[in-house]
Design a protein that fits this description.
With 424 residues, the chain is α/β, with parallel strands linked by helices. The strands form two sheets. The protein has a seven-stranded mixed β-sheet with strand order 9-8-7-6-10-11-12, sandwiched between helices. It has a five-stranded mixed β-sheet with strand order 1-2-4-3-5. The protein binds nicotinamide-adenine-dinucleotide. Nicotinamide-adenine-dinucleotide binds next to helix 6 and strand 7.
């Protein structure tokens, strides 16, 4: 970690640096609330933990873990946990801040938080993965809880990991605290519709953006980067609506087919170690070519910082749907806007996951569970209401959808801050 790291001096082009620029861009639209804007530039609390475990071969390994609570003005912290070899404190700070904006954008009663461990889970046995998860949960147990901060899945974490987190927290506190995490398996207080919720939200916001652009989804060409929980579900829903998935990239490589990739065959292969690169039903191309594929809709659904200025100049897409968090750097945002490419920003586009996480949390507290139709109807309604309000704000001020989302969200966050007042 850089010795110069601080809340206000980010590493250039880092996710945190991107986030700070996004905040700067909204300040002129905040009116009197602008005096509180500095609040958004500082995480409330950041915890770094050592995660030591005994490996299967008897060695002791140490991993670095984080939990950052960026802002809790509007409610408890909410945000996923990422297991990835490149995780840093600065990255988790940015991801937690985007959660603050996202929960406010869809008006859920949460603040923003995020966690992560710098580990490659693909190199761990199942037993080692469980130990890492449990020790990490125990270490961050001093700041998480059903009423304080509620983790959820993110990159390389899933329902099984949430079950271990819930169990560990419950063992440490007594009782069974189902509401401490969301994204759990169904029989442990999980919600129907949660697994597909983020991809579904990408589709719902994307369908509305396409409608406003006059872009018919039937026959529309879609390119998807990142083919995990978010990317593969979004791809399936666009394909069901008649679109062609012409390119997919994951960590194993890029596969292209201008007639449309056969998702029924591609999805199972992408779940194996061979990944998308192991799929025979398309041409394998060098990864950089993904960004120039002839397509109408581009869905980045992998990691941050993927749409650089260079790639923004190359893309043929008319519409970018940010399934990933922070996939577009600010310079690229400007290039896309100048080129007339519409970007539905992460903080609304991928908010479907946290919305159904909220439903899960509410269901856990009431011990009454809804059916899947009810979940999906409520999800679609919340996403559409939020998007329409953001679109009106963008039209009113003639600003991008990203700055408009920040304007709507930051007004809610800073109003809460102002009404609560500063303690002491
Ligand atoms: P996941 O672990 O299920 O899938 C990640 C995908 O990205 C995999 O297909 C992997 O191969 C691919 N990938 C990783 N590194 C890559 C690289 N260098 N180049 C190309 N592809 C690469 O993760 P996920 O849950 O689908 O999350 C993806 C993105 O969506 C992340 O930015 C995450 O923060 C965001 N997100 C996830 C959720 C959720 O509910 N899971 C909610 C909101 C946002």
């Amino acid at each position: 970690m850089s010795e110069k790291l601080s809340f206000v001096h980010p590493t250039p082009n880092s996710p945190w640096g991107t986030y700070l620029q996004q905040v700067d861009r909204v300040v002129p639209y905040l009116g009197d609330l602008a005096k509180w804007a500095e609040t958004l530039k500082r995480p409330k609390r950041a915890l770094i933990v050592d995660v030591p475990i005994e490996m299967d071969d008897g060695r002791i390994a140490h991993y670095e873990g984080y939990r950052v609570q960026h802002n809790m003005s509007r409610g408890p912290g909410k945000g996923g946990v990422r297991f990835h070899p490149d995780v840093t404190l600065e990255e988790v700070m940015a991801l937690s801040a985007w959660m603050t904006v996202k929960t406010a954008a869809v008006n859920l009663p949460y603040g923003g938080a995020k966690g992560g461990i710098r580990v490659d889970p693909k190199k761990l046995s199942l037993k080692e993965l469980e130990k890492v998860t449990r020790r990490y949960t125990s270490e961050i147990g001093i700041i998480i809880g059903p009423h304080t901060d509620i983790p959820a899945p993110d990159v390389n974490t899933n329902g099984q990991i949430m079950a271990w987190m819930m169990d560990t927290y419950s063992m440490n506190t007594g009782g069974t605290a189902t509401g401490v995490v969301t994204g759990k398996p169904l029989h442990l207080g999980g919600s129907l519709g949660r697994v597909k919720a983020t991809g579904r939200g990408v589709f719902v916001t994307g369908r509305e953006a396409a409608r406003r652009l006059g872009l018919d989804l039937r026959g529309a060409r879609v390119a998807v980067q990142g083919f995990g929980n978010v990317g593969s579900v979004a791809a399936e829903l666009f394909a069901e609506a008649g679109a062609k998935i012409v390119a997919v990239q994951d960590h194993t490589g890029t596969v292209v087919n201008e007639n449309g990739l056969d998702l029924e065959k591609l999805i199972p292969i992408s779940r194996t170690p061979a990944g998308a690169a192991g799929f025979e039903g398309g041409d394998k191309v060098p990864n950089e070519q993904f960004w120039e594929v002839a397509c109408d809709i581009l869905i980045p659904a992998a990691l941050e910082g993927q749409i650089t200025a260079e790639r923004a100049k190359k893309t043929k897409a008319k519409l970018v749907l940010e399934g990933a968090n922070g996939p577009t750097v600010p310079e690229a945002d400007d290039i896309l806007a100048e080129r007339g490419v519409l970007v539905v920003p992460d903080v609304i586009c991928n908010a479907g996951g946290v919305t159904v996480s909220y439903f899960e949390w509410v269901q856990d507290f009431s011990s009454f569970f809804w059916d899947e139709d009810e979940i999906n109807v409520r999800l679609d309604r919340i996403m559409m209401n939020a998007l329409n309000q953001i679109w009106d704000t963008a039209d009113k001020h003639k600003i991008t959808l990203r700055t408009a989302t920040y304007a709507v969200a930051c007004e809610r966050i800073l109003m809460a801050r102002q009404e609560r007042g500063l303690y002491p």
